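To start, an entry.
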Amino acid sequence: MITIDEFAQVEIKVGKVIAAEDVAESRKLIKLGVRGFGYTGADFEDKLFFFVTNLEPKKIMDQESRGMILAADTAEKPLFISAAGMPVGAKIR
C-alpha cells in the first residue's frame, strides 16, 4: 500500500504516440515500452494514452524506458486506456 502523499508524487499525463516500433528480439516490447498480447506498433500510432512520466529511466533489451503507458488487466490481454479528446500534456490528478 502507498500513502496519499506517495500517490501525489506519481505524475500521470496525456501523451500522443507519434511513432511506435516493434523490438525484434521481444514479443512484449515496442519502443514506447509495451508490446505483445496481439498488439503491434500500429495499434498505438497517432493515438492518445495516459502515461506515468516521472519514473527513473530503466534499460530494457538495450532500449531506455523513461515512462509507462497505463493499461487495465483483462482476462485476454491488457486494455490500454485511451485519452482521446484530451489535450497532450494534460496532468491527471
